[in-house]
Design the sequence.
């Protein structure tokens, strides 16, 4: 999509800075807009504030300065328009897959029959049909992450916030998750803000990549990968545009590490 035809921003960060106790500054003056219906990835070296920024957007942390707006409205805490997919799954160990996926709806007072119907639909969409009655200790790490994704989708939030959701699984499962996520989002049309350490993952899945500088994190560069998603995964990963973008970003990140 040409930049002139970009959709409106649904999430905006305005002058976001974060200083932790002890004077450690994680973020400084971050101004960003996140376009509706697009996947934006936050990328950068360890300690650059990616997860801090995601948690501020989620309403789990307060910024030291600045504000977050969703659909033009300032927010000061968690809200139903944002759903977070945790890195560590954050499942209730005593609850079944069905109950875990429907838990957000339960908190909102949705009737049991309706929330279970919705939960079953998203369990099926993430490829876990037949596992509704299982418990987290009976699932692999990859299956647990699918439950977390289904739970986030079930509440029908406008914005999905994903904090390195695939970091705990092996490379083969990670690539399958990337494919599954892109397929789901092509149907669900969600706005996604995604944190990863992987340059290759960021280039493969993203409409836009925000590269943050070393601490304190500032917006360093914004990339728009020119990926033709009509092709197979193997062809994309061998494409010159994909490889060149990975290398361009790596050269910048390597300078940060020197």
Sequence:
């Amino acid at each position: 999509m040409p930049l002139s035809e970009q959709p409106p921003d649904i999430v905006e960060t305005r002058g976001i800075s974060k200083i932790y106790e002890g004077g450690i500054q994680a973020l400084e003056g971050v101004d960003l807009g996140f376009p509706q219906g697009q996947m934006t990835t936050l990328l950068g070296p360890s300690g650059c504030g990616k997860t801090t920024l995601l948690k501020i957007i989620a309403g789990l942390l307060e910024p030291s300065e600045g504000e977050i707006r969703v659909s033009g409205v300032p927010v000061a805490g968690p809200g139903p328009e944002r759903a977070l997919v945790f890195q560590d799954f954050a499942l209730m160990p005593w609850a079944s897959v069905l109950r875990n996926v429907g838990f957000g709806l339960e908190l909102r007072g949705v009737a049991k029959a309706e929330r279970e119907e919705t939960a079953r639909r998203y369990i099926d969409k993430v490829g876990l049909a037949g596992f509704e009655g299982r418990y987290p200790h009976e699932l692999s790490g990859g299956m647990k992450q699918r439950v977390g994704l289904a739970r986030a989708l079930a509440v029908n939030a406008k914005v999905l916030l994903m904090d390195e959701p695939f970091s705990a699984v092996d490379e083969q499962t990670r690539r399958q998750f990337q494919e599954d996520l892109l397929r789901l989002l092509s149907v669900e049309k969600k706005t996604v803000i995604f944190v990863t350490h992987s340059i290759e993952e960021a280039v493969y899945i993203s409409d836009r990549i925000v590269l943050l500088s070393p601490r304190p994190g500032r917006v360093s560069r914004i990339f728009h990968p020119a990926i033709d998603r009509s092709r197979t995964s193997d062809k994309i990963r061998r494409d010159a545009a994909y490889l060149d973008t990975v290398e361009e970003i790596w050269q910048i990140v390597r300078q940060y590490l020197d």
Observations:
- The beta strands are 9-19, 25-35, 39-43, 65-70, 73-75, 82-85, 159-163, 191-195, 208-212, 219-223.
- The radius of gyration is 18 Å.
- The first strand starts at residue 9 and ends at 19.
